[in-house]
Queue: 3 jobs
Job 1
Amino acid sequence: MNAPSPRRLVALMALAGALSAALPAWSESAQGAVSTEAGQLAVRQEKFTLANGFEVILVEDHRLPLVAFNLWVHAGPRNEARGQTGFAHLFEHLMFAGSRHVPRGEFDKFVDAAGGTDSNGSTNFDRTNYFFTLPSNQLEKGLWLKSDMLGWMIDEVDSVALANQQDVVRNERRQSFENRPYGIVEEALYQALYPEGHPYRAAVIGSHADIQSIQLKDVKDFARTYYRPNNATLVLAGDFDPRQAKALVQKYFGSLKPGAKLPEVKVATPEITQERRLVVTDRIELSRLNLAWHTPPMFAAGDAELDVAAHVLGGGKASRLYGLLVRDRQLAQSVQVSQDSQSLSSIFNIELIARPGASLDEIEKLVDAEIAKLAATPPSEAELNQARATIQTQLLQRMEKVTSLADLINHYNQMAGDPGYVGKDLARYAGTTPAAVSATVARWLKKDSRVVVQALPGEQVLPPEVATPPMPTKAAKGEREALNALEAWRSKPPAAAKAKPLTLPAAQSFTLANGLTVIHSAKPGLPLVSASLTVRAGQGANPADKPGLAGFVAAMLPEGTKTRSAQQIAESLAGLGATLNAQAGSEEARIEFSGLKASAKEGLALLADVALNPAFEGAEIERQKAQRLAALAQAREEASLLANVVGNRVVYGDAHPLAANALGTEASIKAVDAATLRGFWQGHYRPERAALVVAGDLTEAELRALIEPLFGAWKPTGEAAPAAPLPSPRPIAARTVVVDKPGAPQTALAVVAPGPLASAPDWAAVEVMNAALGGLFTSRINNQLREVKGYTYGIFSGYAMGRERGQFGIRGSVRTDVTGAALSDMWKEIQAMRSKPMGAAELTRVRNARLLSLPGSFDTNQAVVGAYAANWAVGRPLSAIAEEPGKLAAVTAAAAQKAARDHLDPAQLIVVAVGDKAKVLPQLQAIGRKAEVRDAEGKPQP
């Protein structure tokens, strides 16, 4: 239930990017819907239309016992009336607030109880979608829920529901735009690109004034016009019988009344004939440059060429701008280039965040030179092939998961008018030539037709504050109406069919002669492979005087080996269309690879090379220092990150290895040298302390043949670092810490305390208890603070149970003026969880939410690898994953309450509040909480 920022809108649909012509020689088994017969990617699907105009697309795929329900309503901001920005997104929220046959607040509870995953909605400029994935025996219940949303939501929406969701959406705006670095900059960019009256001008989420001005009559008018069966499409993707599915779709959607013919949206593409420049100040540490152009609409001539150009200029570490500005000149912290394709017009956007002290004007000149070069000289065939390979892998990964596969089909159906458009999409990229890319860049990316936005550190200037009216306590008479006839039989939820046995992806383990553990989970089907080399070399291994060292070592691994430079590694990965990332967590470091099966041999060779033969070259170390120092500055921009950093320092104590920022400190970063990095690597990156976890379309024999030559000869060099256990957090009394962020529209909260380890025998009871407290969208804390009070966009709790480190945390942001009230409500929910066992209905719902959703949590190679790598890292046996369903099923209400009493002690909870001190402190005093003030590093302030 969220609205992505304009920068991310196309990410929800443009992963449909397209494949190159060079597809692997592979065809899906009869179990799956996706195939590449004769090198042609295709998805087996069937489309039909009911008499009322409702479109249905069936994608039969039996790889997992899951069904994805993906409903698109073909309305977004492009359909909003003037002065009603954010309406489509507000309506998305209202769709979850209750319907005629699904009482308010119960929709998500039904999804939880059924074992649903990926339940949400999203709005972009062209459409609104509503989706969840359920176990396949819940096909009928899913259709019952979706049909009631579409046909009978209007029966229940009233002034109370509207006011509540207006508060929620405005909190989302505060969190996503006003309290997020560069949020208002992105909004300013769109306002500079599009004139008044254009539907793309405002952010999808809308303005505070427009959101608050929406009236109940407006909601009903919008529903009558757009939320009708003849303006919606449902994609079912997954494990079902098509004949049964058709009959059930007719049963649940066939009686919905169609609406009138929809008003056409006719909007000319804006034309910029003279460069527009603006400067936006924001509460940021690092300056940012955006260069943006209007470009052809999605799937129009030139769209594919500009997509390729985006990859060439800024599509990763092998791209031209990354190499020039990040790696060589070290003027930029990051670079992103995208062709953001939309139905009315697209935007080509170049975004660069500058290093401290770097000149945006200098960066702009260098970018202009690269654009001019690309416009004059075609890219190389190698660059074109790298772009195609990346798009190819991304699209296949998009199809790996039935949730995203269903959304992709809906995307093609609306935007191209053909759910089977994938083949034609591929043809666009196969037919693209270097000369065409160059000519298209010259045609569209002209200096006099662009918008230039410089974001600089300074005062954040926002429109005048719009008051939040008191929440109405009850609806007035006559507020409700109906679009469709009452059908009494819908009041009874359909029963589930017989469930298939709950099984999770199996894995086998074997050990190489040098002690390296190998964990393999075969996942035939799509020709994809993921791997993770997981090493017990996390932040907990940092020497006391070298915070951040584990993360620095991990970050250096892909930046050069004894035989490959950083650039060569980046180019090799780009040519494979693969990804390889390395990072350190609290207790372990991971080097992760994902790509096509055809690239597995070379990809695993790259992984082995960076892990076993790092160069730690001087110039790369200095570049990484600058990168990490800038990232440290960036971390001060994010209120939620600050809350976590300060929370760790307070909970663990200054001397603990996990107390400091994972990046380290300015002093520790500057002090790093090659000897320090190599010493840590030699002491911790050792085969007997590592596990290689692989999942995907590889047999054990194929895997052994790949890894034996790569890892079999791995011999540790130097002495092993002592395997000293992490010290326990020092006993600490409850306290409240405030970090001042003057003018912040929200307070970021982190309520933290030590927690149990993964070895705790009651870990399953802890998870079920937490699901009820704050782990689910329907949890007590989120329901009270979001759905009842409208204080927050979302606030959740969780336990991080590690091998030697455990922590509990409640995290989220609340409106500044209700910080104290939100904490009071939170404490009431904690006390209630400790004082009384859950009722039978709540226990069943939250236990099923964890238990029955397990298959949906293992639906990609990366998910399987992540689960088994985490399982190994925390010291659990391989069998623990297979045993998880039984452990969760056995949790009782009494066990969950005992877990709360044992592992949720209010006397240990530390509250960290990052917000406007002048407004927050009086609220804390009013609820009887004394607060200490600390700075952004967690050091006490006077």
Job 2
Amino acid sequence: MQKERRREVLSPIFALLFFCLLLFFVQGVNAQEDSVKAVDSLSLKVALLQLESDTGYSFFFNEDWIVNKKVPANIQEDGIGPTIDKLLLNTNLNFYILENEKRVILLRNTIIYDELPSYFFGRPDSAISAGNELITEKRIRPTFILKKSEQEKRQFPLTRIGRANTNNLKSSYMLKGKVTNRRTNEAIPDLAIRSKGSGQVVISDENGNYAIELPAGYNIISASAMGIENMEREIVIYNDGILNLLMEEGLQELEEVTVEADAVSNVEETSTGTETINLEESKNIPLVLGERDLLQVAKALPGISSAGEGATGLNVRGGKTDQNLVLLDDAVIYNPTHFFGIFQALNPFTTEGADIYKGSIPVEFGGRLSSVFDIRTKNGNVEKFSGEGSIGPVTGNLALEIPVKKDTSSIIVGGRGAYADWILRALDEESLNKSQASFIDVIAKYHHRFNENSEIRATAYFSRDDFSITSDSLYNYTNRLGSIKWNHRHSEKTTAALLLANSDYRFGIDFDGESNTDFDLNYSINETELKYKLSTRLNDKHDLDYGISTKFYSVNPGSIEPQGNESDIAPVFIDTERAIEGALYLGDEIAVTNKLSLELGLRYAFFAALGSGTQRTYQQGLPRNEDAVRDTISYGSGDVIETYGGPEARLGLRYLFTPDFSVKASFNNAYQFIHTLTNNTTVSPIDTWKLSDLNIEPQTGLQASLGFYKNFNDNMFELSLEGYYKRLDNVLDFKTGADLFLNENVETEVLQGDGKAYGVEFLIKKNRGKFNGWLGYTYSRSFYRFDSPFSEERINGGDFFPSNFDKPHDISLIANYKLTKRYSFSANFVYQTGRPVTFPVATFEFRGSDFVAFSNRNQFRIPDFYRLDLGINMEGNHKKNKLAHSFWTLSVYNVLGRNNPYSVFFVTEEGQVKALQSSIFGIPVPAITYNFKF
């Protein structure tokens, strides 16, 4: 049996190895094309002087033109003209030979014309004979530089591009290059480059690359982007060439800048269901206890919600919380929250922003069914030491940006800490007087730019939560991750990135009670990923993304050990689970026409559960329990237990009816090989992760979406309407009364069934002006079905029932009003349908004992949720020469004092079952935070 399974995995492994060899072969070819052959070289000046001595010709040139230019030393002489041509091949220099005077004149970019074409002064085309055909001369005028008097009036820097060639005279040439932030050395995407003469406009891509076709000769180009100072340049273009731009950061107001890039992507991008959040957007949203929170901003967007106030995790388009891939600088963060979801575990002053994919998931991502949160950390300041921080009622925060080598490398370091214990002790609840709750998180990122084609980024992150709501139990959970990424530009068309990342999540419980039952309980999951991805711009019609990735998982399903010599707890250790997950992918973004674009992608996902360990097999036709065990199989270290995998499609379409109105559609399917095990109503930080194995199959899902996008009033308003449908297979849920933790045979306690979700999302956003914000509305439904021939494996009779996070109506309103440059007001209103719950509906007596009969799973709902928050931002004066710039934030969370239920539970008092409601914040919560920046 084991040998058969080994054979099953050989084919995908050979495919992975073959793809690796293919990638390295392709890159080897690229490297060979782009590199200079290893031959002896000498300076161009020395070569010219040597040629002058050997031939008797006199050379005339400006030495500034040939500084640091090298040529091969072994160029074979083949006449004066061909020899000079070889020497100048990789420069922008031309030459003109005066044979009678034995003089050679070098020219920068241009050439000397000793004869003009017949049509230069307006005469008609002339026809010349070529065999039996008549060929009309090209009516292309040579390019000449401006008069000296006009050059003296020039206001912008003049740049000459290309090397003129009489055999390649065109009416227009292609200018390419990369746009870079001078301070951070980061590429600048979405930068608009305009030609004032031709009216051409192009936008730089995500790597800062651009390409624009310009008329031959004199041009003025301008470049502008959000937060970037506008630049204008005068150029004279003689041939195709490269112009890299170093841009300065601008001092525009955020709301004036943010919207333009968003407006372009909203209509013009091919992908559906994509949201981009700049962390500055959270500055003006009133949040609990004054803490900026990117995840809370995300929950205010259509299609994204949570199970309740204080619940860890997000639900995206009707998906479970474990179906979201949350990345911090390309490394997975398993629990991105502190204190049961009340705070995010991300430092707001080191976080740059996030791209959220809830519809069209890029082909490079996989392993989750619902969404990807791609969170980015800022690069540090490479010019000067700077910092930012805040002091609030329960948290303190500081981030420092430290240049390592000016204009080349930097480090950004951030740290946060909470001191919330005093709040718990101040509450009028005696049982909480000895409670504690605190957290810390630290992050550091190093960024080094070797040259314009190569850079490296390394991130390290750690967070820890400690909390104790009862006096005898101390809970803790930690996140630790690290990533290192090398970005390299192989050629003008191809860029690559090599990534190595590791993530670790664990939790523990230290129980110290009055009886002899003290124990330490632990759980952990660790994963390591290696990814190599490439992007190639084949031409104006095709942009390719392709690559390979692999992960290794190691899961400690749990252990419990006695604490102290007097503890009666028996130790339990569950076998470690291991697995590998891999993928190959290829995607193409196709510009069919100016109006129609397509995204086509194919990804092959592969998973193998590995030994050592044991797995049970169960008899067919019987419910899966202890009585149905057929065999127990033992696997050695590295043995393949089971393999899964298959193709994943990524399809997208966009059609532009007008420049500000488009329709988009998408389809994708995915595999998920990792699951959470929980029987809590809402997700908690002590939920465990389970790998697919012989008895638990991977989850699969597909999603189709259709959307309409429209901008108004010069992109001041954005409007979108998008609908989606999801289908899910092999989703996990628990049997009634299931015991999931520290269970060696957890497959007997869970069920796998079907799911479906559908909905419509509406968003209207005002981007500019004193009053701005957005209104989002989502109608969504999410259902599960667990059917089986056996009653103990059926839920609700095998019919579809609402999931724990099914909330049909969700409304979010974010409003900001800027009274002056220093004072602004903000409001946040949220309304959601109450989530489903299961209630007891009757009591009965059996053999002298009282029992409770419950309703069907999730048959009832808790009361609807709504909340209003208000805030005021008061900025300090805007004097330039200050030690630090600061502002105060005053906010009131839950202004209306709404006692929104977090959960409903039942107790028996005096023989009667009573329903009780728990809430997180049942009163208004004011906060004042001081923020500073230097």
Job 3
Amino acid sequence: MTAKSWKKGARLHGFVLRDEQRVEAIDATARLFEHEKTGAKLLQLANRDPNKVFAVSFKTLPQDDTGLTHILEHSVLCGSRKYPVKQPFKEMLKGSLSTYLNALTFSDKTVYPVASRNWRDFLNLVSVYVDAVFFPNIHKTPEIFLQEGWHYALSAPSDPLTISGVVYNEMKGVYSSPDSLLGRTAKTILYPDTPYGFDSGGNPDRIPDLSLAQFLTYHRTHYHPSNSYFYLYGDGELEEVLRLLQEEALVSFGKQVLTHRSLVQPPFSFPVEKTVAYPAASTAGRTMYSASYAVGEATDPLQMLMLTLMAYVLFHSPASPLKQALLDAGVGKVVSGQIDPSMRKPMFSVFVKHAESGALDLFRRVLTDTLRRLAEGGIDPDLLHAGINWLEVTLREPDQGGPAGLTYLFKVMSSWLHGGDPLAHLRHDKTLSALRAHVQKGGGEQWIQKNLLDNHHAAFLTLEPSVTLAEERERQHRQKLARIKDTLSAADIKRLIEQTQRLQARQQAADPAEALACLPLLSLNELPAHPEPIPLEQTAVQGVPVLFTPHDTKGIHYLQLSFDTKAVPEEHFPYIALLAYVLGKMGTKRYTYGQLSNAVHLLTGGLQCKVQTYQQTQSAPKVATVFHVNVKLLSHQWPALPDLLHEILSLTRFTDQGRLLQLIREFKAQRETLLLRSGHQFAVMRLASSLSDKGRCDERLHGIGLHRFLSRLEREFAQRADEIAERLQQTARLIFRRDALTVHRVAAEGEAGEHLPRFLEQWVPTLGMEADAPQVHQQAHRLVNHKQYEAFFGPGRVQYVAKGGGLFTAGGRYEGRWMVLKTLLETEYLWNRIRVRGGAYGAMCSLSRTGALAFVSYRDPNLTETLQVYQEIPAYLRRLNPSQEEWHRLLIGTLRKLDPARSASQKGEVALMRHFSGITEEMVREEWAQVLRTNVNDVRELAPVVEAVLKEGAACVIGGEGKIKAHADLFDRIEPLT
């Protein structure tokens, strides 16, 4: 049966077509099916996108704080009926061309999405995921629960009892982040009588309360087709997927009735208040406050767009009057917020951070007074229209954070899960028109009055820092485990040791060859001959190098204005990063900073500055630090751009000391949040700073060095305000010169190309020249060798452990086989040793063309054990002896990483990176060919180089104070993280 002949009521492989509609906003035909036997629901969004997405989702409401739904998400991907290997997820990461492969636990659902551009690979992924969720091995292999969830570990009767588990250690890391704790706690106190009142991820103190029996019962009842939502997006063949679902899964089930708890929290009669302590390194200025409100309906598209718009108006925009009022009143140093539109009754939260204790009343008073003034006196129309324009561009580019089909999936589920129209949030063109009309009639002011001022369903949270809490909790944890061990009989201890041994034996055992052979695998002739090319055409206009990457951009023009920063002297180098943050957020000659923010979103689709460092190939190690001004434009917005850019780049008023100090504090707070959430990235950056000029620049512009710089500026601002402003002004004059400029445009072929010459003709003359810049002594950014073992400690309960060195100094050179080694280590050795056996959430191998090679763990309970795992890599490589099929799978996984699916703007960024790094299309294709030619011996031969890297390299650990200080003898230097 062809698509053209389908009519409402058509039957296909057990499914009945209930409805078919055209959704013009996303250029797709939507078909809604129901499986007759089980009641399973399926939505297809058929269009021409080759990056196909499949997902199966379940309504999974937490019943407590044990993280059951999160542990289940991990565990079903650890082997199944048809694919009885220990880690099918890992094997498909290694052996497929997937463009997305993950599983996600939300507050009310669990989602299993996959994506691929290769049709047979896509079907393979669907088959593996469907078998995993419906027929997992968890019911016959209890060690899966012990490994992924939690378990008591005991190797000998005299050893102390410990707890480990992948999710357990992951959530210890999550609960170490105050920002994460703020949002999670706000949600639990706002919806106390619903499943939202529990943490679906799991509180690490409560995770050990979960039993295996509870875990298995929940899977049997909730992972059933009657509770499922299937989703299919892209240009795939629908019938083939329906047949697969029917034959491989649904035929085995009947219909089941599952009653869920209500997700609707009865409204509060009055707002609630709560104070919670959190571990911190210091208390001064470390209190946090939040005001959270239950607002709107997740199934209503206009309300949800309104929610997003008001988040922009009230805290995302630099022009936000609420944000500024809280800062001006001195409530705190940083104001932000978040929304969660996926919950049945969405949450709207305003956060104040870096505040003093006892300021809750001031926070509430300023918040209420400002909201009342906006509701009664009106919101700036320019701010509202700027927000709507920002929304329009955002809705046009759904593939910025992953495949477009994934973005649409989350929009679908936020209504579908709650019994609403699954297409409601996809018709955003009509909703946007309705939003404009609603705002024109005072909808913004009405929203504030109804949802914030008159809404008693609100919660006010205070997070108070404690310097002793981390140590107290750790002591209580050890004492609790000691008491538990004291209650165990000799037989109990024997059983626990045997359980630990069985788990370790399973973790160390290799999958049988016949089990691995069950996994689907593409043949070599089904692989692309080369990666997708990213074209880059080069010309010159007005004497300026102009680059062009043609791509379908859905009417958006991506313009990248790139300035070489080589004229900036060494001592001013970190000011480049600060300049990138403050530009567009400070006032100019003609605009206040609020007016400028509105102008940016009224006259463009958005403007962003960022700094990146590029290094040429190893034969010519030239380093360039480039300042990018990235602008999104619709065709009609080009004429206003020259004046706007001149205003921002040449006429910014850095002398507004109050605003500058606010931005320094805000920037510092953002970096601090990243340090606590993504310590692995900062540990690797710190390592690389001793290995190459690029690494050193990156550390000073983005790493711990930048955080130290910002902390120093904030501390010394009162004495140095004029100097800081002058240095920013001087840095801008040194950078924004026409002789330092390269222009790059990404747009559809032949689309509005005539705008660029006119733009350059008007704008380029406003830029300075080298002769106009202040005369400074140019210094090379010389490499300073500080290879050492460093540690940075904080109140966290997990570590990020990095070790590495220079590839080139160890006698190696960058080539395709190193990428194979990276895939091998990440999906085999490091995965098994650090994640599976060590209990860390993850481990990675970092490798760049500059020669920086590093190994790093993520949310790791260990330290010395992980360093030892790295030391044993060379021995692992020397004894490497995979089967032909395992090697074939490894090569496919490597190619997947070399050619990911990219959005239009991402392709533009890659094209520009290659331009400044001297990477040609021929080099990219040669690396692809080298990967395909790599054999086992080629990787074995890398063992001596890795050995030399580890011997001569350095280490950096970011982690908990207790763990680091217990191993102080390992390190040359130990410092507080923040």
